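**User:** Once you have settled down, spend some time on the protein underneath, comparing sequence with structure tokens, and judge whether sequence predicts the tokens.
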Amino acid sequence: MRCPSCGREIPEGVDVCPHCGARVTKRLGMRALLAFSLALILVGGVYAALSLQGYRTYAQIGDLSRKMTYASVQVSGIVTGSPSVYLNPRGMEGISFTISDGTGELRIRVYGKAAQRLVDSRVLPSLGDRVEVSGTLLWSSAGYLYLSVNYADALVIREDLRHFQELSITRIASASPSELEEYSMVETTGIVTSVRPMEYLVLYTLTDPGSGSSVTLVMNGLTRYVLGDAKLGLGNGTVTVRGALKLYGTEWEVELLTVGGFDAPAAEYSGSPSSDPYSLVTLEGVVESLSGDPSTLPAPFSMVVSGIPVNVEAYAGRPLDLGVGDSVVVKGILLEGPGGRYVEVRALTMDGVWA
């Protein structure tokens, strides 16, 4: 080897050059360098494994406190707060819901790309689901703890624990608050007889045509965003729905599952005013009278077409140039009230009026 200072040949292993007296800096050999690199990789792997293990440290919700802000924790529980979706001008902003493990409740927030990935993959939480969630514990400006989730695979939904109990509408409608278990999964069958769109959700009435008993179905904000408003097939025959029981005051409601929450036939407007109530009908005739101004839609109006009253809901169709004596085609649901049968043209469906 050569001295790095004077360049002369010197014996191997010396610390000082015998020619110029300079200290000789020893270089690592290839084997030593390889061993050092492998050691670094091993240390990095162990650190990553320990970090991941710490990220998945299980905690009970009741043990969480503000002192644990920024801690990485894993919690599990039942979804007890209806999932909602937050949007911004660019699209999906996040998903929010609440879970309970018996020791307390905790709000879960899934953000950005993680939320969009859950929507795209249809891996979505529903009321009554048992979930396992990992994330960062944060303190909100409103004064409560929540778990921030930034990765889609940090949310695990135990779909294998969904067990549906078949209950009739009459049984659900007549049960007292103590007779059924809240958040339990149920399956029931009936005819959807009304729809009430609201700002963040949609309420349906499911009726047993035999007994006349009814129960309210709730489509929460996340379900509405994913499935759309008109997917339930209103008024087109018997519908089987699955969802979770929820108490609203002293009455039981069924919140529809986010995905696959119902089984409905395709809408067919094949009936006539002589059909059974709640049938989808097509009415062709002449406008005999008119109440309201069809050109101001989405404001509601009513009319009589060939002797059959027709009520047109708000947000149904587009403005019409329509007057008495005009020929029209009406598609809607056949209902029966104190004054007899009438056709209702509803929002959020394929109903409509064509002049």
User: Anything to note?
Assistant: The chain has a mean pLDDT of 85. The chain has four helices and 19 strands.
